[in-house]
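Entry — protein

Goal — fold tokens:
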Amino acid sequence: MSFDVDAVRAAFPALEDGYAYFDGAAGTQVPAPVIEAIAGTYRRGIGNVGGAFPASHRADQIVADARQAVADLVGGDPRGVVLGPNMTTLTYRLAGTLAAGWSPGDEVVVTRLDHDANVRPWVQAAARAGATVRWAEIDDNGELPADQFESLLSERTRLVAGTAASNVLGTRPDVASITAAAHAAGALTYVDGVHATPHGPTDRTALGADFYATSAYKWCGPHIGAVVADPALLDTLRPDKLASSSDDVPNRFETGTLPFADLAGVTAAVDHLAGLTSHEGTRRERILASMTAAEAHEQQLSSRLLDGLRGIPGIQLHGAPARRTAVAYFTVEGQTPRETAERLAAARVNVWNGHNYAWELTGALGIRDTGSAVRASIIHYNTAGEVDRLLTALST
């Protein structure tokens, strides 16, 4: 399936400013249909859900459409799509809910590879419950060996939290093997898909994720998070909620009023991803085809970037995972990561510097206390010419 990056870029007004945006892992740019979906919601008039009038009915439909769109993106059931302001907030909420059933002697497994949003909520919830935290470690290449989980699990393991892709090294662990081991031990699994979802096709069931978290602003949508689970599993959980609010699933996990205009943008963002190629079929089928083509495009750019960085004297790449998303994490000899980022910004190239919330990982790499590293992340609207601009700016 061909991938026309010029046609894709034409949908993004922000890309007209002349900058090369290699900051997608921190948040992507937004295409015009998403902007219009959000603005159009306000133009038409919007009310709260559950009312007797048309503006309220529009809100009801927007929420239903957003749940269906997220379900189509990751391979889930819309009745199991919990929406919220971001993945971190939702993870804290679910950690508190799950931990209500933990007791001293229970165990939770987390990893050094993960974004802190899939570490700290579980560590803190375990501490409150008196549960033990066990750590899965990375190897010298930044891989997360799946075989170590057998020794970390026991009949007292209640949850295994892990990532589908590292947000700084790009490492893609063998999630299916990890979750299979967790399920064999009777544990639930919580998979952080925030970085993984924008970079290839996603199948929550194949991954074995009891809970799969994603964030729309990482795949060209607004700042909305979602956690996807089986509705039957969610029905067994009792989060703290207002007595007057809905007890239905997934509504019982959503506090306050949802941001309806932004949810319209979520649906538009999923439609954007589904339309990256000319493949026909259901939206789920189009998403799988488009994300496969986007991944191939990104991997070509990633090879160009990594090969180019290896050829520049004084640059150290961190991590060498065998299977990774399109991201490079590096330092330049004689420069702090911030200085490198500022130098690139002067060349109209946007990158991030720092730990990027990979708190445990940057600590394990031994770079957290010295500013960590520079992250250049590729998304489907990036081009080979932009990669060359980045490399040229680092070489001069």
